[in-house]
Amino acid sequence: DVQLQASGGGLVQAGGSLRLSCEASGFTFDDYAIGWFRQAPGKEREGVSAISSSDGSTYYADSVKGRFTISSDNAKNTVYLQMNSLKPEDTAIYYCAAVRSTSGIELRLWVTYYYYGMDYWGKGTQVTVSS
Fold this sequence. Notes:
Radius of gyration: 14 Å
Shape: globular
Helix content: under 10%
C-alpha cells in the first residue's frame, strides 16, 4: 500500500522551530517529487515547498523562502521540512504529497498551481504557532 506519513507537528511560540517528516512507502521514491502543502482554517490550500527525489532540486513559496528548508534522505524514503522563525500565519495543517517526476516537472508549477496533479497525499500534521 502507498503511504505518505507526515509527522513532527506541534505547538511552538513565534520565532521557534519545528521539523516535519514525510515518510513514503509503497512506491519508487526516486521517481517522484515530494511536496509540502498547508491549509489553515477558512483558507485555501497553499503550496509550501517541494523537492525532486532524483536530482535534489528544490522550490519554495515566497512566504517561506529563507525560513524553511526542505531536504530528502533517499535511503530512508523520507523528506524533511525544517521550519525556522515560525510566524503565527504559518499555523495550518501540513500535508505531504507526491507526483511522478520521471518525465521532468517544474516544481514551481506543481507547488504553486498543482499543475501536474497529485499522485499521492498523506494525512496531515498540525502546526500551531502562538504569538
